[in-house]
Design a protein that fits this description.
556 residues, alpha+beta, 7-stranded antiparallel beta sheet, 5-stranded antiparallel beta sheet, globular
Amino acid sequence: MDSLAEFSSVTRDRRPRRNAVQAVTAGAVVLAVAAGGAYAAGLGPFERDTGPDPAAAEQARAFLADWAAGRLPSAAGRTTSPGTAQRVLDSFTAGLDITEPELKAKPATEAEDGTVTVPFTARMPVEGLGTWTYESKLPLREQSDGNWKVDWTLSVVHPRLSGTEKFRLEREETEPPEVTDREGTALSGAQFPSLGPVMAQLGGGGGGTGPRGAIHLVDRATGKVERTEARFGARTVREEGPVRTTLDAGWQTAAEKALAAHADGKNAALVALRIDDGEILAVANSPSSGFNRALSGTYAPGSTWKIVTTSALLLKDAVAPDDVVDCPKYLTVGKRFQNVELSAHPGATFRKDFTESCNTAFISLRDRLDDGELGEVARRYFGVGQEWHVGAPSYDGSVPVPKDETEKAASMIGQGRVQANPLIMASVTATAVSGTFHQPSLTEGDTEGHTEGHTEGDEDTTRTTPLPRGVVAQLREMLRATVTDGTARVLSDLPGEIGAKTGTAEVSDDQDNNGWLVAHRGNVAVACVVEEGVTGGGSAGPVVRALLGAAPADSE
């Protein structure tokens, strides 16, 4: 192993400026492979006569995309020192047990000497522990052939990585906890494979704790710890006995069987929870080991996000279900947006736009919301972006203020930098049909275990406002119509008054779209994502249909 690229995992206690160029879309570009990839809005709608060369920022984003996707030879080839870069990137991710990084580029800046710098945020999931988040920068220089490359230094990977200091991962593992469902039925990873990584994060029974660990910065020569960069895992002592969860063995069984039968071997995840109190009934992932996509994934939610967009529009009286909002095949806002399969519905009502998931219609209404209004509605009424304490590590969503009109258009349809996962979208669905946000929970009477190691003494600090009854009634009616007359017809022959919304989320030019479906029946809300599932109805639809068809009586 290269001496400058050494990382180790230790287990202990086995217990120049350009004129007249078109600017790249302002704002951070999300490069999220663990979460299902990235959405690149393309060239922005405005021109400027000064600023960094767009080709430099493009090279930076490509480097981050390759690194996040594990295409390390390609990433290294975009640097001034490919051999060294590849060895360092490989040893960094492998030595620290990092799986599926998420890297978000920020706007580029240019120095007087022509060097371009692209800052970025790194979210590094450490297998079985949590997520290490930090900031770094990519320096880029124009080469003699006119191309831009990342000017390679160790600090590209992390600002504290150097020739004299490296990182070391230390784990403190304990025996897996005993876990039961809400009725006291024992749950095991052998019986419920999807719960393996989840149960390990709950904290142990019998006075034990869940997996703990830390990433230390150490002296390369002596191994002395210079500082601790991140800690993971709670150190609280629980009362004797198994960890009692809110899970339901019947729902969990149905969820795991539905994914096994209908995810077609693709990465997929789903969550089912009670509408009246947010208690989680099932968490399932495919594959069943490794990254917990259901709770910690970061995905563009696609058209399932139109539930939130519709709420924002209805709250403002900006549109009504019977208003005519045309649905053309294309709409250009800096880039060309289109509908799935190039569908069009001339003279459609807003209700029709919702049930047929018309992207262009929703984007045409963007001027009726202020730039930050969608994110404010998501936070205030749905709790998205607030800090959740579920009882296990979770990602709680992000809806940044759009940087330009193209990004605002994308956010209206759950793209751009909007990020969620099945946990968030199941909660969004529950809030939409009940009017009240209930922080999801996985363990009874326990608010510990939030992501990124913040687990001791955490309390529910979410603060939300109920949706008006009129808005809830309109949302329920449109969700129901999506099943009876729209894109969620895959659920139409199941018993019960099911409401649903499909979603198809762009990932990248070389990856198929992710498929989404959210639904509610009785007192249960469900959300499912299938990576590269192409369409929501065609991929996530059969999973949710199988779940609802086999699940026990809805939790009252």
